[in-house]
Amino acid sequence: MAEEVLSQNEIDALLSALSTGEMDADDLKREEKEKKVRSYDFKRALRFSKDQIRSLSRIHENFARLLTTYFSAQLRTYIQISVASVDQIPYEEFIRSIPKMTILNVYSVEPLEGRLIMEINPNIAYAMLDRTLGGRGDSVNKVENLTEIETKLMSQLFEKAVDNLQEAWSSVVDIEPELEEFEVNPQFLQMVSPNETVVVISLNVTIGETSGMINICIPHVVLEPMIPKLSVHYWMQSEKTERKPEEYEALSKNIKRAELDMKAILGESSISIEEFLRLGEGDVIHLNQSIQEPMTLTVDDEPKFMVQPGKMKKKVAVQILEEYQGGDDYDE
Question: Domain 44-236, what architecture?
Fold first, then answer.
């Protein structure tokens, strides 16, 4: 068992209490001998370590930033979304904590098993709907009287929003989230058993002067395949992918077949537009290079070799003399 290490201030306070008689050394010894028992609530089974919860928090902080960008573009107004908390609680407790009538989106996350819930507070949902319809973002809570048009508009808005979850989770798993259900009464949703542990990520959302919460409920069965990847060791380790020899050989062959554009530059010259317009048959343009000097051979417009012109098998050719030496760009 790990021993608790006291700070210097705690040691000084303990010695002071013993010397003044506030504490008795014999009492301390008796306390050490007594068996320490800590109560454990099996209904609130903690199935995720603090390290894994912190990893989930980092993932959904990125998700919050992506949602901020997405909703700001869709609704054309200032929106701020941030992670408020990440907790693991029984599913029953999550259902009790949300309003009796609210906006509930149920998503499948293939290839993972199970489904997750995104609960949007009615104040936020109606503010978004009002902005979608061209309003100022006012909120009116009448979730129990949603029309078919309002239901469709909200479904489309949050169906596309979950695409950002795919990007946020891409560092640990590739998923294909898809909206399966749109519900307003949480009592009609019984995805897992009441005592099943779920992770609830609460997001603070501000739209203009309206604020509220978005809660993401992820059952343990969804996160179970990801658990090994939620440790610090996974985030800190650098994975080295070793290529097989045949992969290198295939890559080398493909590179060798790549075509290059090569040009032999006879010389260059600069003239004015007026001189260019006056050019006619028989005119001569002076190049900036003597016929005795070697030419520059470029590869994809980059100078590589110095060459001299000639013929080979009755075809015009160039002979490489030396590698091109650049200027004094790197000299100080």
Answer: 3-Layer(aba) Sandwich (3.40)
User: CA 123 to CA 126: how far, in whole Å?
Assistant: 6
For residue 293, what are its two tokens?
């000097």
Q: Contact 104/122 with Cβ under 8 angstroms?
A: no
Say if residues 295 and 306 touch (Cβ distance below 8 Å): yes
In whole angstroms, give the CA distance from residue 288 to residue 96. Answer: 85
Query: Residue 37 phi/psi, 5° resolution?
Result: -120, 135
Find the Cα–Cα–Cα–Cα dihedral 153, 159, 163, 168, rounded to 10°.
100
CA distance 200 to 119: 10
Give the domain ranges of the chain: 44-236, 261-266+290-325
Report the C-alpha dihedral over residues 223, 229, 230, 235, rounded to 10 degrees. Answer: -150
213-236 pLDDT tens trace: 889 888 888 887 777 777 655 555
Instruction: List the one residue out of 266, 243, 244, 267 whose CA is nearest residue 316.
Output: 266
Q: Per the structure block, which two tokens stand in for 23?
A: 């504490």
Other CB atoms within a 10 A radius of the CB of residue 179 amount to: 17
Contacts of the segment 303-308: beta carbons below 8 A, 24+ positions apart: 307/264
Residue ranges for the chain with pLDDT beneath 70 = 1-10, 12, 14, 16-47, 137-144, 231-244, 327-332
Q: Give the pLDDT score at 239.
A: 47
In whole angstroms, how large is the CA radius of gyration of the chain?
Answer: 35
Q: What is the pLDDT of residue 258?
A: 83
Burial of 233 (0-12, 13-18, 19+ CB in 10 A): exposed
User: Both tokens of residue 230?
Assistant: 């939620």
pLDDT in tens, 11-68: 767 676 666 666 666 665 565 555 556 555 555 556 677 877 888 888 888 888 888 8
For residue 301, give the 3-state DSSP assignment: coil
